[in-house]
């Protein structure tokens, strides 16, 4: 895993919001939401591109375990400032921030190992702390069932 630190400007997404834990998301909740979002893509005006951004927002509590504890996932498309929010969707803004970033390569089912390395070894070795959210960018390389899959990952840093 090759990781680095970057600063990204503020951006906003319009899309769908769900809550659950990794067990629920992996049991089909996330996949269903992704397909629903893709089917409604053309309803979102002022989309900047066709990349899906999947944001995960975690409660900052001691002992948080994403496998069992619930957190928020937002799947959407980056939009311009003047974008209208279609019925049944939300708008979510991400502030400018520093991020630890890398690209997960391989099956989406194995992404937990990449998160463990990024959150554990990489961030800790630099004396940084996570800010309570991360996001993934799913573009034309997103092929979750394929070894050719690539997902850009960003973990917000304090």
UniProtKB/TrEMBL annotation:
**What are the AraC effector-binding domain coordinates in residue numbering?**
1-158
Q: Name the domain of life this protein comes from.
A: Bacteria
**A Pfam family reported for this protein in Swiss-Prot or TrEMBL:** Cass2
Q: Which SMART domains match?
A: AraC_E_bind
What name does UniProt use for this protein? AraC effector-binding domain-containing protein
- Biological classification of the source: Bacteria, Bacillati, Bacillota, Bacilli, Bacillales
């Amino acid at each position: 895993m090759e990781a680095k630190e970057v600063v990204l400007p503020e951006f906003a997404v319009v899309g769908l919001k769900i809550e659950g834990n990794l067990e629920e998301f992996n049991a089909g909740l996330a996949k269903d939401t992704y397909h629903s979002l893709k089917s409604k893509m053309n309803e979102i005006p002022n989309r900047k591109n066709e990349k899906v951004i999947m944001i995960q927002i975690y409660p900052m509590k001691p002992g948080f375990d994403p496998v069992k504890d619930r957190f928020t996932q937002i799947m959407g498309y980056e939009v311009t400032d003047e974008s209208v929010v279609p019925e049944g969707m939300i708008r979510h803004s991400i502030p400018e921030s520093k991020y630890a970033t890398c690209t997960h390569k391989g099956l989406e089912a194995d992404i937990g190992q990449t998160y463990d390395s990024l959150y554990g070894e990489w961030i800790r070795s630099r004396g940084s702390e996570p800010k309570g959210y991360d996001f993934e960018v799913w573009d034309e390389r997103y092929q979750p069932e394929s070894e050719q899959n690539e997902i850009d990952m960003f973990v917000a840093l304090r």
